Structures are given as C-alpha cells and as structure tokens.
Amino acid sequence: MLVAAALVVTPLLAGCGSSDSSTPVLSFYTAADGAEQYAAAAQACSAASGGRYTVEQRTLPKSANDQRLQLARRLAGNDSSLDLMTLDVVWTAEFAEAGWALPVPEDLSAKLRDGSTLDGPLATAEWQDQLYAVPLNSNTQLLWYRPDQVPGGVPPQTWDQLIDVAEANAAEGQPSYIGVQAKQYEGLMVWFNSLLVSAGGQVVGDDGTTVTLNDTPEHRAATEKALEIMKRVATADGADPSISQTDEATARLGLEAGSSAFEVNYPFVLPGLKENAVAGAVPFLDLSNVPADQQDAAIAEVFRSAPYPAVKENTPAKVTIGGFNIGVANTTQHEDLAWEAVACLTNEENQRNNAVNGGVPPVLRNLYQDPEFQAVYPAWEGVLNSIENSAVRPVSPAYQSISILLTDALNPPQGIDPVADVDKLADLVSKAVNSEGLIP
Questions:
Q1: Which of 11, 74, 309, 401 has the fewest CB atoms within 10 Å, i.e. is most exposed?
Q2: Residue pLDDT, tens place only, 231-283
Q3: What Å distances lie between residue 92 and 109, 251, 271, 336, 397, CA to CA?
Q4: Quick one: fold of 8-139+321-384?
Q5: 142-306 belongs to which CATH class?
C-alpha cells in the first residue's frame, strides 16, 4: 500500500480542494510538529499567488522515520499528487542521489547564496555543491541550567567542568542529573556527533563514504574523547540512572522536576517551562500568581541558557543543527509553480511566524537583527551564535543506516569503551556506506 500512515489534511485548508478546478493545486507534505504554522503559510501563499496556484498542506506522521517512509513510498511509487515536502536536514543527500528531490533552479540558488541565509542551514540543503532544497527553519541546542545550582551562578564552559559540578552537587545532596538525549534514537546520534565534531573529528569525509572515525591519529583521538565524555556523563556520581532511556522530553521534565541541574536541549524548553510554572507545576518556580509582564524576569532568575558545553577549553562547541528544508518532488506536474511556492513558504514573514508561534529558529540572517523579533524570541542571541558555529550530521546517502547502527552501538552509554569502541564504530560506518549488515 502506498500510504504508510493515515494522512491528515489540516482543517484550515480543508476547503482548498474546492477551488476552481483550473487552478493548479500543490500538495505540501509537512512534518507534524509545526503543522499549524505550515498550514498558515500555505494559506498565505495561496492568497499571495493571485489565483495562479493553491497550496494544500498535508500532515505527515509524528515520527521522523515514518515521515521519511511515507515520502519515500510515494516518491518510489511515482505519486503525481506529491509536489512539495519538508525534508529533515539529514535526508538531502539520500533524496538527491535517488533523484527524488529536484535541484533548486539557478536563479533561486543564487539568491540563497547571497549571504541572506545562514551558512549552516544552507549546507544542510546541499549535496555535491548543488542545492536540492530551500532552508525553512533550523534548530540547535544550548545548555540550560539553574544558576542556584552552580558556583557563583556561572555556567560550566566545558563538558568536564559540567560533570565536575554535577558530581559536587551529588555529594551535597543537590540536583545532579545532566539532561541529555541518550536512548537509542536520533537524539543520541546528535549528541555523539556534536561531541565528535567539537573534538576535531567527523564520521565520514566530504564524499559521504570515506570513514574518518579512525583514519588519522587526530581523528582517532577525537572519537575517543567524544566517547569518553559520553561514558563519564552516564557513570558520574549522581548520574541519572535511567540515562539510557532519555530524550528531549525527559531532559526538560527532569530539570523542571528538580532532579536535574542542567540539560542540553532545544529552545522549546523555555516556553514549556513557563507554561508549567504558570500552572504551579515547577517546584523552584511558581508563576501562578505572577503578572504576565513580570514572568520572563522571574524565569531569568532561576532558569537560564548558556553556550553548549565545549569539548576543548577556549574552543566553542560545534553543535549539530536540525531543522527542515522544503524540496520539490520529482513527481510534481507543476515544477515552476512549485519553486515559486517554495520561495513564498520560506519568506521572512513565514519564518517569523514559525519562530514566534512554533519556537523553531529561522534561517534568515536579517531576522536576528530585527529588534522586534529579538523582543519576542528571547533566546535569539544564543541560538544565532550556536547556528553560526554549527556542525551538520554526516552528509551521506547512507546516513539513515549510519545512524541506526551507531545509535545501537552507543546505547546504553554506560557500556561504552572509549578506546576499544573507536574501531568498532568505524567498522559499523563502513558497513553502512557499503550496505552491509544494516540490521543491528
């Protein structure tokens, strides 16, 4: 069967199919998270087209793996009703190599490369020097912490310092967990890759197939350091005993509950904490009787963000970015209109709306320079700095296989052997890029 999961057409645009039959309808398959913002953008761009086309937003399944599966099945089946698609930043090489995502036209590509789009997000839309999608939004992690749980309220700058503070807290009976993403899923790959690239290593070379975890002494040392940090976080005094099952949600809730002093996580944690604090569900922060115009100041007293911990002293971390790009499917029957719609869906107005209402960072440089945007997106400076000094996940058509095998090998993190596992991981990546042994 072609459809992998039930398809939900957002109610906001449910009437699009009733438009004039002569008006081309462009189906826009999007991730579930942010679907309301994507639907609003589809409606706005339909109106802006002046009747030249209608964009009909359709929601893919919640899971990223299921999203990819449904798109892949439709594309492999030559489903002509598929026009536009949000592509996770790790899918670009795979969809480009398969011929599923059409290359971005030269005129639009030139506009994207004029400096207006942040370099990191732009790199996620590229394969072999050709753009195959247009960046829509990005995502990056920061260190979120409770200033009352660190000496002098000053956040640790490195992972080693972070672990030292957490162990000292444990010795004093204070919150000591470090919220990370360590269960067997994509979040674990993000954690490993951020540590690895920050240490000076990488998983594969620029060709997407050469294994670089152990090909030089420097790369081997970087891989060892990344694994050493993961092992130490998982086995430190006062570490979360359930760390092998942690994800973004458990990291966020652990800090809100008072068991964690720190978490590495995405900007969504700030509005999440505020919502629960207003409901009186955060022990160290009760906002239930605090006027709305004073709530942000109250939060800043007890919950703050800092740069993602560095691996090397005096060397900023390179955080693995996420986000979505919009690609045009090779099954579309309206290629020119599809690219026109993509340009609209990714414009400044829609990116601003996605950020303010959905929490996801925009990719347009000038938005971060806008005082009005800064006022409604308080973490803007830390987010921008992180994206500008970011890492991308291994760029390879075999990325999904690489991620599946590595996250299986790295979980549970308590069982990592930082020295012996370097060659083990390199062997797994070699198997992935050669389509060998893909089931862990």
A1: 11
A2: 999 999 999 999 999 999 999 999 999 999 999 999 889 889 999 999 999 99
A3: 15, 29, 30, 20, 8
A4: D-Maltodextrin-Binding Protein; domain 2 (3.40.190)
A5: alpha beta
Q: What phi-psi label fits residue 238: left (phi over 0), alpha (psi between -120 and 50 degrees) or beta? A: left
Distance, in Å, from the CA atom of 71 to the CA atom of 88, rounded to the nearest integer, reads 11
313: tokens are: 């002293």
The half-sphere exposure of 263 on its side-chain side, counting CA atoms within 13 A, is 28
Q: What six digits make up the tokens of 74? A: 């439709």
Q: What is the mean pLDDT of the chain?
A: 93
Tell me the CA distances in angstroms from 215 to 229, 243, 263, 410, one per residue in order: 21, 31, 32, 20
How many C-beta neighbours within 10 Å does residue 171 have?
A: 10
Which residue intervals of the chain bear CATH 3.40.190.10?
8-139+321-384, 142-306
- Nearest of 207, 130, 145, 149 to residue 179 by alpha carbon: 145
Question: pTM for this one?
Answer: 0.88
Residue 173 tokens read as 């009976």
Q: Are 384 and 120 in contact (CB under 8 A)?
A: no
For residues 75 and 110, the answer to whether their CB atoms sit within 8 Å is no
Q: Hunting for tokens 């604090």 — which residue is that?
A: 277
Among candidates 112, 152, 155, which has minimal Cα distance to 136?
A: 112
Residue predicted with more confidence, 371 or 19: 371
